Amino acid sequence: MRSLLQSPTIEISFDHRNDWLYAEWIGDQDFDSVQQGCLQMLDLMKAERCHKVLNDNRLVTSMWSDAAEWGGHVWFPAMKGAGLEYFAWVYSPNVFSRLSTDLTLQHTTQPVVLTFDNIDTAKAWLLQM
Question: How far is the C-alpha of 120 from the C-alpha of 102, rounded, in Å?
Fold first, then answer.
């Protein structure tokens, strides 16, 4: 994997072997960190011309539900418009982060987004797509 971005709240890489963007979110998140990370992910997805994202929230330690509506109504449609087809979202073990993920997905109709408790299962699903 080739590292594309490193910040205190997100690290984004491109997995050439599997042709997907890998985003690893880190620590406490809030509206600003989520929005900034998502917009960076959008730019990098366009630059790499990929259609799949492995979104890893296993290290997220907080609720970020204030960004859920923006994510569902603004960001996911922008990602779809940029070519995103499949988005595998690995849940955080933090219950409040999980609730934030679920709330975002209530506002999301496209692209295809599936949630997973296990990163290996998420990878296996993405590989089939």
Answer: 20
Residue environment code for 98-111, b if the CB has 16+ CB neighbours within 10 A, otherwise e:
bebbebbbeebeeb
Tokens of 20: 């997907």
User: Does the predicted model carry a pTM greater than 0.85?
Assistant: yes
DSSP tag of 19: T
- Do the Cβ atoms of 71 and 33 come closer than 8 Å? no
Q: Where are the alpha helices (DSSP H) in the chain?
A: 31-48, 68-70, 76-81, 95-106, 119-128
Rounded CA gap, 97 and 110, in Å? 21
Instruction: Read off the pLDDT band of 110 (50, 70, 90).
Output: confident
Cα torsion 26, 27, 28, 30 to 10°: value is 0
Six token digits for residue 34: 């989520």
Distance CA 52, CA 18 (A): 9
Q: What average pLDDT does the structure give for the chain? A: 96
Query: What integer pLDDT is reported at residue 40 of this predicted model?
Result: 98
